[in-house]
């Protein structure tokens, strides 16, 4: 336990949390795990992917590779970090005694994987405290884009990188010149509500991009390929690693009405543009009732 080196070269105190060197080790492990699982996903994709099951609706698929990737990650973590807890998208939660939880998404962007669209990733993060985006402290994370092999990583207080090159968010000159990423849920009521919100947002920004993998969206924001990002309905494994990459690259990451980023709403971007998008989403009641 100890302190971490901040992005400005100073020392950020992290009482009760792992030291800077421990966080660096966790970051390296997250990267290694995401690369290994990514290699399996990439090499094992058949010409035609079949749906193994569905989750929230008939259009929310699970493939056998989702399960295989998560099983690999769980095996590696059980061997390397047996005292840590695990929270994954496809399997049962694993309790731990260390106070740390690994939050894993074996394939973020399963629909893209299913259709062969080149935007899906393996996301691996480790958090301190309860694995709840409203209260956790994300310590380290890695997002590995499976198709092109790009890997983004971050450590708390230690910055973010893309394949070793440091990242910094891009500051758009205005909301009107901002390229905004978003995503949509799988339930009909949520989609209908999100479509109404989109009609309020789209006329106020440069354009909208919907790539289908939240972890990649947040990393694209971190590197300046998106100016802003918002989405309702993100799960902990969708935002853990990518959210840390974004914030360590200088992004603000919150919900609406002073709330933290949760499944109700996640908004990310440079502070000035982030504040403008938050205000626009609040006026559109983006976190309001969906019925």
What layout of secondary structure does this protein have?
Blueprint: E1 2-5, E2 11-14, H1 20-44, E3 51-54, E4 61-63, H2 64-80, E5 85-88, E6 100-108, H3 110-115, E7 121-128, E8 137-145, E9 151-155, E10 160-162, E11 165-166, E12 179-181, H4 188-201, E13 207-209, H5 214-223, E14 228-231, H6 236-248, E15 252-254, E16 266-269, H7 271-283
Parallel strand pairs: 5-6, 12-13, 12-14
Antiparallel strand pairs: 1-2, 3-4, 6-7, 7-8, 8-9, 9-10, 10-11, 14-16, 15-16
Written account of the structure:
- With 291 residues, the protein is α+β, with helices and mostly antiparallel strands.
- The chain has 2 domains: 2-166, Fructose-1,6-Bisphosphatase, subunit A, domain 1 (Fructose-1,6-Bisphosphatase, Chain A, domain 1, 2-Layer Sandwich), CATH 3.30.540; 179-283, 3-Layer(aba) Sandwich (D-Maltodextrin-Binding Protein, domain 2), CATH 3.40.190.80.
- It is built from 7 helices and 16 strands.
- The protein has helices at residues 20-44, 64-80, 110-115, 188-201, 214-223, 236-248, 271-283; strands spanning 2-5, 11-14, 51-54, 61-63, 85-88, 100-108, 121-128, 137-145, 151-155, 160-162, 165-166, 179-181, 207-209, 228-231, 252-254, 266-269.
- Strands 5-6-7-8-9-10-11 form a 7-stranded mixed beta sheet, sandwiched between helices. The protein has a 5-stranded mixed beta sheet with strand order 13-12-14-16-15, sandwiched between helices.
- Strand 7 and strand 8 form a beta hairpin.
- Helix 1 (20-44) runs antiparallel to helix 2 (64-80) and helix 5 (214-223) packs parallel to helix 6.
- The longest helix is centred in the N-terminal third of the chain and has 25 residues, at 20-44.
- The relative contact order is 0.14.
